Fold this sequence. Notes:
Blueprint: H1 2-15, H2 20-39, H3 49-61, H4 66-85, H5 112-126, H6 130-145, H7 149-153, E1 166-170, E2 176-180, H8 183-194, H9 215-229, H10 238-251, H11 256-263, H12 268-271, H13 275-289, H14 291-297, H15 308-311
Antiparallel strand pairs: 1-2
Helix pairs in contact: 1-2, 2-4, 5-6, 5-9, 6-8, 6-10
Amino acid sequence: MNRHLEAFLEMMAAEKGAARNTLAAYRADLEDVLSFLNARGEDILTCQALSLRAYLASLADLGLSERTQARRLASLRGLTKFLLREGIRQDDPARLLSSPKARPGLPKNLTEAEVDLLLTTAAGEAQKGPRGLMLQAGLEILYASGLRISELLALPAVALTRDAEMLMVRGKGGKDRVVPLSETAREVARALRATHPKGAKWLFPGRDGRVPLTRQAFFLALKDLALKTGLDPARVSPHVLRHSFASHLLGRGADLRSLQMLLGHSDIATTQVYTHLLSERLQKLVENHHPLALAYQEGGKVVPHPAADEDR
């Protein structure tokens, strides 16, 4: 079975452009289901839908979230569909399995004041040496552009050799998009690059320079910065900064379609998790400008809006 799993992962990398972390997640999910089937004396080549339903039920019994269950099923469906396509199986036992409904959670984000405080602290740390400069550059780029941490750390050293205000980023599935950069982000990134040895490959290099900085190393540095800032480290992560970027843009009037392009979402439905912010903004709009809402503010007397005459 291992060779079929390896063949599936190779296909995902070659045809779908799956990133290394995505492939690792697929491997972990599928090794789990294969282990479950093996314990029952079965395998993925001959099992039926009933056995796969039993596997999904075991995940629920373990208390795994609906989101995790849905991800495991998606991985399983990918493998069984691949086996059918390659003629290794004559049917797809996972095709009719129902996916558990994941309850959408609202993205967690920092306030604008908290992000400003974090960036100010990072600027102070940058004066102490290259490690602090690396962290400041990372934070400035993350918050200015909404990049994923994997996209940030994959930036080549030549990504910011020009003074362009936009940055070309390769996202999930090998798709390229253009994102903006603030002036501060460009300046700090140039300062960081100036500390690199000649011929450096990565904008955020690891210790030996041949590979980029790991997500774990950046994550730990960010947690340490949160402590120095006086913020709860549990509330601060690269992904929280990405959510903060999106939330703050929407709060200041950006539209969902533009946000989708900036975040690199292939489906607008993914971006719609932020619609609660639009609802809050519309509610405030009504409260601040509707005549009846203004009437309550004036003690019950309906007061025409100052712009009413201009609109006639």
